[in-house]
Amino acid sequence: GKVLGTTQSEPFDDIHNFGGFSDGDRCAFLAKASGAASVTLFGFDYDDPDVNDVKKKKLGWAKRLIEEYL
Questions:
Q1: What is the dihedral of CA 46, 50, 53, 58, to 10 degrees?
Q2: pLDDT value at position 42?
Q3: CB 12: neighbour CB atoms within 10 A?
Q4: Fewest CB atoms less than 10 Å from the CB: which of 20, 28, 36, 59?
Q5: pTM of the entire predicted model
Q6: 7-61: per-residue pLDDT in tens?
Q7: How many angstroms separate the Cα of 20 from the Cα of each of 1, 17, 35, 54, 69?
Q8: Residues 31, 6 contacting (CB under 8 angstroms)
Q9: 69 or 13: whose pLDDT is higher?
């Protein structure tokens, strides 16, 4: 099957940046860029108390991006 490479930074070659900062919100931006009428994220917990500080920051950015652009 096909493989579509994505990144959260500068795209290169066949690697694309559709927006997003974590895997979950990057998938949401990819879906919207592909023409999805709506996007529903299951199991995406912005306030998960069991993640480390780096993941908390990523989830914070993900929340901001989704709320502002989707």
A1: -30
A2: 83
A3: 10
A4: 36
A5: 0.70
A6: 888 999 999 988 887 888 888 888 998 999 998 888 888 899 999 999 899 899 9
A7: 24, 8, 16, 16, 10
A8: no
A9: 13
Contact predicate 29/18, CB 8 Å: yes
E strands present in 1-70: 5-6, 15-16
Domain extent listing, the chain: 5-69
Q: Which amino acid is residue 23, in one-letter code? A: D
In the block, tokens 């990057």 appear at 26
Residue 59 φ/ψ, nearest 5 degrees: -65, -35
Task: Answer whether 5's CB lies under 8 Å from 15's CB.
Answer: yes
The answer for 58, left when phi > 0, alpha when psi is -120 to 50, beta otherwise, is alpha
